[in-house]
Amino acid sequence: MTFPAFLTLPGSTLAALTLTGFAAAGLPSCGAADLTHAAGEAGSWNQAEKSSNPGSDVRPARGIWIDREELAELPASGPAWRQVLEVASASTEKPNLSDQEDPANTRALAKALVFVRTGKKRYRDEVVAACEAAMGTEKGGNTLALGRNLGGFVLAADLVGLPPELDGRFKEWLRGVVLEKLDGRTIRSTHEDRPNNWGTHAGASRIAAALYLGDREELDRAAAVFRGWLGDRDAYAGFKYRALDWQADPKKPVGINAAGSRLEGHSVDGVLPDDQRRGGGFSWPPPKENYVYEALQGALVQAMLLERAGFDPWSWSDRALLRAYRWLHDEADYPATGDDVWQIHVVNRVYGTDFPAAETARAGKNVGFTAWTHASPAKPR
């Protein structure tokens, strides 16, 4: 796979550019030796991509979630921007990774976005403090809470750049936290055996951590698991499914039903069976089951992170993600509302669709603010 472009520069060039950029902002930076080492790792990663994925037309990008140059071009005015500012003003003093409803993760992300766009140092200071305070608070929780919460802090840290000493501790903690047993599961095991919202949120945080750490093996494994969840059982098929009522092929269950799938004469092409089942057994008209959108929150973040790392998840399994949203709109008559609307801005941008999406969109369980960051048109896929 292709590593983000800022890690494909020669080591000395990378170090000079990064150190210069941080110095200009008056901020602490990583050491040149660390940056040179990272660039070396990226180089070998890119060689692996050239041999394993020849002819890839995926354009690598800088930044795990979004880069500073992209943010600099976004408007610092309008309803969507004002919403980011409003969330960025909220407290992140006591983050709690064991609380699945804790908003500190998306607040930290908002602060990071505002810092990069405005240069106001207090927002960065609050992100740094929040990342430090978050470490260890996963204790006593479960992997749903950690899966929802972890990624936002990783993305925020990537945007602002943590001070070197804290960054070292943050990375050490990240390496361990994805393997930490919480209520009998880890982030990694949850991603690999839960084919529903638990697994998709875990996968998003797992991928974010792997990218932050530059962990090639972990990223490749996570990408294969996600590809399997989208429907490619040759890539991965180790999930543990529950009721199979909504599976188009119960003998070969998947995370998203295959293109053209039907049950009792009705289209289930794009259904997420292991979350749709929460509304009961197969019935028509289909239940408007919000767990499906919850699962798609995690799935969409996985796809967005993987795309920026050089994969093309939007096309996998006959554009499985697009088919999922089409089924919700066309068959279930169930457009996104509340903290799910942020997803639609991304889907419309990626696929060139025109699903209804409010001018502002609340933050989701894991990320948000896409009405500002991802509302601009992009090339349809």
From TrEMBL:
GO terms for molecular function: lyase activity. Residues 111-227 form the Alginate lyase domain. It comes from the Bacteria. Coiled coil: none annotated. One of its GO terms (cellular component) is periplasmic space. Gene3D superfamilies: Chondroitin AC/alginate lyase. Keywords: Lyase, Signal. Residues 1-25 form the signal peptide. SUPFAM superfamilies: Chondroitin AC/alginate lyase. This is Alginate lyase. It comes from Saltatorellus ferox.
